[in-house]
Design goal:
The complex is a heterodimer of chains A (116) and B (114). Chain A contains no helices and twelve strands. By secondary structure, chain A is an all-beta fold. In chain A, strand 7 and strand 8 form a beta hairpin. In chain B, a hairpin with a 6-residue loop joins strand 7 and strand 8.
């Protein structure tokens, strides 16, 4: 069965420094992978997605993620953190339809804090 | 594009009561999903529809839960005889099978069972 593991439950960075949020996945198929962000009292917003095209995926707000099949990883990065990036981030895996599995499988989330 | 909307945004009820939530997907989306998110956890899949057909249900969806999408547009999620363990955020998402199938989420309905 497919799953994702977010390696850090909480990451704290200073404003202007790089962000790294780690995610490893497990899948029997070629997965589609996503990162979603959830700000307090707001809905989940899609940051970026990987669907077997380019392995380096660029998303909104300066975020990007690199799919590494050999490491089964899909880490999220940003060169310079802003205060507005403070939120909960979810790594998500899904499978092609008709695979007999659930549509989206979420990790437990990583809470990003940005210190001024 | 008005996005996915959910009503109500908050619901407080007493144990044993029935509650119903509504989700209005993005208008051209033919797929609709329900998820549940408890505090400190990621969302967990409950069920999904393609048009009006309910195609998959999670084992999390007990007999007290029922979802409908009668005309292939909006959907309702009903919980009968609510229990304190049902307290959670209920999220709805929609996608288009013709548009890359990316799921777009609504703001959620927060249920508190006293």
């Amino acid at each position: 069965a497919q799953s994702v593991t977010q390696l850090d439950s909480h990451v704290s960075v200073s404003e202007g420094t790089p962000v790294l949020l780690r995610c490893n996945y497990s899948s029997s198929y070629s997965p589609s992978l996503f990162w979603y962000v959830q700000h307090p009292n707001k809905g989940l917003q899609l940051l970026l997605k990987y669907t077997s095209a380019a392995t380096l995926v660029k998303g909104i707000n300066g975020f990007e993620a690199e799919f590494k099949k050999s490491e089964t990883s899909f880490h999220l990065t940003k060169p310079s953190a802003h205060m507005s990036d403070a939120a909960e981030y979810f790594c998500v895996v899904t499978l092609p339809w008709n695979s007999g599995n659930t549509p989206l499988v979420f990790g437990k989330g990583t809470r990003l804090s940005v210190i001024a | 594009d008005t996005g996915v909307s959910q009503n109500p945004r908050h619901k407080i009820t007493k144990r044993g009561q029935n509650v119903t939530f509504r989700c209005d997907p993005i208008s051209e989306h033919n797929r609709l999903y329900w998820y549940r998110q408890t505090l400190g956890q990621g969302p967990e899949f409950l069920t999904y529809f393609q048009n009006e057909a309910q195609l998959e249900k999670s084992r999390l969806l007990s007999d007290r839960f029922s979802a409908e999408r009668p005309k292939g547009s909006f959907s309702t999620l009903e919980i009968q005889r609510t229990e304190q363990g049902d307290s959670a955020m209920y999220l709805c998402a929609s996608s288009s099978s013709k548009g890359g199938d990316t799921q777009y989420f609504g703001p959620g309905t927060r249920l508190t069972v006293l």
